[in-house]
Amino acid sequence: MRSFAANSRLNRLSGKRYLHHNFLHFGRDKFKRFRTKLNAALPVTPDKIKLHQTVLHLTLAWNIDKSTIIVNAEVADAIYNELEVGHEGGYSGSSQGVWMPGLFHGKFVDMHGVFMVHWGVSNHGTHNPGSLSFHNTHLHQALILLSSLPPFRVCRDLVFTSLYVHILHCLLLVSDKSTLDECAASIETYAQLEVLAASIQVKFANAELVSELCWQQTTEYDADH
Where is the DUF6589 domain (predicted)? Predict the structure, then answer.
């Protein structure tokens, strides 16, 4: 079993390699020359399962109204009755999975909350990937409105895509470049790319720094009120 320090090192290394992957994948052809170096530097751990294919057990469609919270209980009953999950110990034998259907409704609410709180602020401008105005400007599609949000899957994809764009935006900030073309042209070695990724981790993915900034914000609010 690895020590806490070893796990921390592996997590930091994995995070750095994740940033590198995003540079190469979403930076289009600008960073592809570092692909070989990245593949050779991927972290390795003995804690992995053998390559295998998961066996799927298909069932008939169930007539369940997904628009109400009652569906959570209906899904749990259907799983219990049709798949005989938990019969070994009675209904309580499936308690580890009964709460899972509720996650779907929770995710719907969470996704709407993300758009309301983080993406619905009009003063974010068109340069912040975390705002609706950014996507409405750059996607050249039908406008996304808080009063009429697209389907859940589209909202989810936009949130995750914005995270990838945030990483590239952070790359421009730490490299002090205005465009990805300028940034890519200034990076001559993979070691330089590693330094920039480390800078992103320290400045924008540092839990201690976030906690300190939140504390400062709370202190300033309390002082004003």
Answer: 89-220
pLDDT digits (tens, 9 = 90+) for 88-107: 666 666 666 666 666 666 77
From the CB of residue 32, how many other CB atoms can be counted at a distance below 10 Å? 14
Q: Residue 191 corresponds to which tokens in the numbers above?
A: 């070691």
Query: CB under 8 Å, gap of 24 or more: what pairs does 175-180 form?
Result: 180/27, 180/30
CA gap 133, 219 in Å, rounded: 31
pLDDT digits (tens, 9 = 90+) for 26-66: 776 778 888 888 888 777 777 778 888 988 877 677 776 66
What is the DSSP track for 68-121?
STTHHHHHHHHHHHHH-TTTBTBGGGGHHHHTHHHHHHHHHHHHHHHIIIII--
Handedness of CA 210, 211, 213, 217 (dihedral sign): positive
Q: Are 78 and 62 spatial neighbours (Cβ–Cβ below 8 Å)?
A: yes
**DSSP state, residue 54:** P
What pLDDT score was predicted for residue 176?
92
Hey, what amino acid is at 130?
Answer: G
What is the total residue count of the chain?
225
Domain ranges across the chain = 65-98
| Residues 68 and 75 sit within 8 Å (Cβ to Cβ) | no
Place of tokens 């590198």: 20
